[in-house]
Design goal:
This protein is an alpha+beta fold. Helices cover about 25% and strands about 20% of the residues. Strands 1, 2, 3, 4, 5, 6, 7 and 8 form an eight-stranded mixed β-sheet that branches.
């Protein structure tokens, strides 16, 4: 998803649907009401030390309270939600506006980290360069170069923000920074493949690929991610640095107003 250096992208949609200034104003007014819901799944297999996780950002509104000048039609405007809004039994309307997914590996418990990544999927195997082939542990750049003391490798797989929310000063980046703050509590490193996958089956053939790729990379860089040495398609974050927290505080101040503290 694009918004220059300020919209969370990664393996995400980079095609922007421009919201009208009036709609964007309404959406930003309700940004503080977006809730992030975390779910995870782990298999009961002794040798498996991974979990799959999902983060869903939803906005729940009540027509009689949240209608703008008695106009509530904007909730069903194109691009306001990722899927069709849901009307609940109490007449409230729930809009899914943000999705992120990935997996976490406990590197202390996994006997074969590279094999675990390879066995999961081709997408997961993409991160094999994070593993030292001789030691079987994380590469020295991460193991000795990062300040974080955790044991987990957190991999971000997909991130998507509803189109109408993009181009609004970093909404996707803020939601991603907030999500990662909790997901990386016991992490040694967070990794992502910053690539505009949803440009189609062959993103590199899309005429907007260079622009989209640059935008996605600027976004992850703004959150503190940097390319792994020798690999421009694997970016890593040291959870022990202040970069992610600094980015979140700045975005909160700019988008939600007031003090830039949590």
């Amino acid at each position: 998803m694009t918004e220059g250096a300020r919209e969370a992208g990664g393996a995400a949609n980079v095609m922007t649907m421009n919201a009208t200034p009036e709609l964007r104003t309404i959406l930003l007014r309700h940004l503080q009401d977006v809730d992030l819901e975390y779910t995870a799944r782990a298999q009961l297999v002794a040798s498996d030390a991974t979990i799959d996780w999902w983060v869903h950002g939803t906005l729940t509104l009540w027509p009689d309270v949240d209608g703008e000048d008695n106009d509530f039609a904007w909730v069903r405007a194109d691009g306001v939600s990722l899927t069709a809004p849901t009307t609940n039994a109490d007449d409230s309307v729930t809009l899914p506006v943000y999705d992120a997914s990935g997996f976490t590996v406990d590197t202390f418990r996994v006997a074969d980290l590279a094999g675990t990544l390879d066995a999961r999927s081709a997408d997961a195997a993409h991160f094999a360069p994070l593993v030292d082939p001789e030691s079987g542990d994380l590469v020295e750049e991460v193991l000795d170069g990062f300040f974080a003391l955790g044991a987990h490798l957190v991999v971000v797989d997909r991130v998507e923000l509803a189109p109408a929310w993009r181009g609004s000063g970093g909404v996707g980046a803020l939601l991603t920074a907030t999500a990662l703050r909790w997901l990386s509590l016991d992490a040694k490193a967070v990794a992502v493949h910053p690539h505009p996958f949803t440009l189609g089956e062959d993103p590199q053939a899309h005429p907007r690929f260079p622009e989209a790729l640059a935008s996605v990379r600027r976004t992850w860089a703004s959150l503190g991610f940097q390319p792994l040495g020798g690999y421009d398609d694997i970016w890593v974050l040291d959870p022990g640095s202040s970069a992610l927290g600094d980015a979140e505080r700045r975005l909160r101040a700019e988008l939600l107003g007031g003090d830039a503290t949590f």
